[in-house]
Amino acid sequence: MIAAVGQYNVLERLGGGALGDVFRARDTRAGRTVALMAPSPELIASPARRARFLEDARKAAGLNHPNIAMLFEIVELDDRCYLAYEFAAGPSLGEEMGGGAVDLRHALHLAVHIADALAEGHANGIVHGDVRPDTIVVTPKGSVKVLNFGMTMWTKGGLARAKAAASPQSLDLEETLVTGYLSPEQVLGATVDPRSDLFALGVVLYQMLTGRQPFAAPAADVTIANVLRQTPGRPSAVNPDLPAELDDVVVKLLAKELDARYQTAAATATDLRRVTAELDRRMSELPRRGVSLKRWRVLIGRAKGYVFREVLGRSEKED
């Protein structure tokens, strides 16, 4: 294991990341812990690829947002390149979900953070291109850090996307899992724009709300066919406790046609905040109605409008 890279003292190898080996290191100049990524030499072997890699890295280093893992510095040492990233502690969103759904309020909170991160990247002309649970970290404080912004064409996910459009049958199992988060235009190998990230956000949000990935299948070609042709059921069909307003947001994010989809991440974040505020308002009204919670017999869809049925004598009254 390398001992140091310039001002960075290497503390331990964390594993093989999307861009290559990842080390926890100490920035002796700034006095902070960083994630030091060492792309494999083969990735940027030619002068043209190295120049493109450095160009993308410099552009990514211009992003500064609390929900994006920042690229602090690009270190060129001999014939190697290293990327010093903000150390994003915490589990990936996939680990946070653990194969199931996330609490509704928490899911909305995380989705707003992801949308805010995308809005920042898009405002700087950068499409993420690989939004999925494994590229999102949930910090100990419950915030989100989106990883690899601006560099995903160089990652395993980026390579899998390129292969998916050309030869889905050649994908291995790990690469097959990536295809379920691709937009229709990505799997067709067409030009992508910020709306492709919003489709991926819709897949992630659907999964957080229902515990199911809407397009995934055991084989990549079937997954791709689902992305292109299958319209998943509304999330509330899987989880009846979800509000209709949130159904509408997810359906719009997952629209096959670009013009029918959300056009900006900022608009998506606005609608997610509006749904959150409406749910909070409904909950806050309950105590003011002067009815003890012990007298509520049935909670019809905790999030589905927070409609309650109260027993009053032999009759029932519904708000």
Whole-number mean pLDDT: 86
CATH class of the largest domain: Mainly Alpha
Largest sheet: 6 strands, antiparallel
**Alpha-carbon distance between the two ends:** 65 Å
Low-confidence stretches: 290-319
CATH superfamily of the largest domain: Transferase(Phosphotransferase) domain 1
| Secondary-structure element series | EEEEHEEHHEEHHHHHHHHEEE
Structure, explained:
With 319 residues, the protein is α+β, with helices and mostly antiparallel strands. It has three domains: 4-86, Phosphorylase Kinase, domain 1 (2-Layer Sandwich); 93-278, Transferase(Phosphotransferase), domain 1 (Orthogonal Bundle), CATH 1.10.510; 288-318, no CATH class. Helices cover 39% and strands 20% of the residues. The chain contains eleven helices and eleven strands. Helix 3 runs antiparallel to helix 7 (194-210) and helix 7 packs antiparallel against helix 10. Mean pLDDT is 86; it is low at 290-319.
SSE layout:
Blueprint: E1 4-5, E2 8-17, E3 20-27, E4 32-39, H1 47-60, E5 71-77, E6 80-86, H2 93-97, H3 104-123, E7 136-138, E8 144-146, H4 156-166, H5 173-179, H6 184-187, H7 194-210, H8 220-229, H9 235-238, H10 244-253, H11 265-285, E9 296-300, E10 307-312, E11 315-318
What is this structure, in a nutshell?
This protein is an alpha+beta fold.
